[in-house]
TrEMBL record:
InterPro entries referenced in this protein's UniProt entry, alphabetically: Znf_C2H2_sf (IPR036236), Znf_C2H2_type (IPR013087)
Gene from which this protein is expressed: Znf398_2
Gene source species: Calonectris borealis
GO cellular component, one term: nucleus
Gene Ontology MF: a single term: RNA polymerase II cis-regulatory region sequence-specific DNA binding
Protein name, per record: ZN398 protein
Keywords, alphabetical: Metal-binding, Nucleus, Repeat, Zinc, Zinc-finger
Protein's cellular compartments: Nucleus
SUPFAM superfamilies noted in UniProt: beta-beta-alpha zinc fingers (SSF57667)
Domain named C2H2-type: residues: 3-30, 31-58, 59-79
Length: 79
């Protein structure tokens, strides 16, 4: 059964999703970068940010093989 966010009434299929969404309202950022002062509300956002420090380039161009840190940069390259 759907669960709703108390502050904004947005509906979610699972209570766990409501709890994660509440960070939008509370400003909680429990996922801290070990390399700098940045912190994130969601683990996926921290993992994406870590590419800045690691130099990871997980988006290769299928035509030339050049790799990019961000999908948007790959998309610009392919245009």
């Amino acid at each position: 059964r759907p669960s709703a966010c108390p502050p904004c009434a947005r509906a979610f299929a699972h209570n766990q999703h409501v709890l994660r969404h509440l960070r939008v309202h509370t400003g909680e950022r429990p996922f801290a970068c070990p390399h700098c002062a940045r912190a994130f509300a969601h683990n996926q956002h921290l993992l994406r940010h870590l590419r800045v420090h690691t130099g990871a380039r997980p988006s290769p161009c299928p035509e030339c093989g050049k790799s990019f840190s961000w999908k948007k940069n790959l998309a610009s390259h392919r245009r």
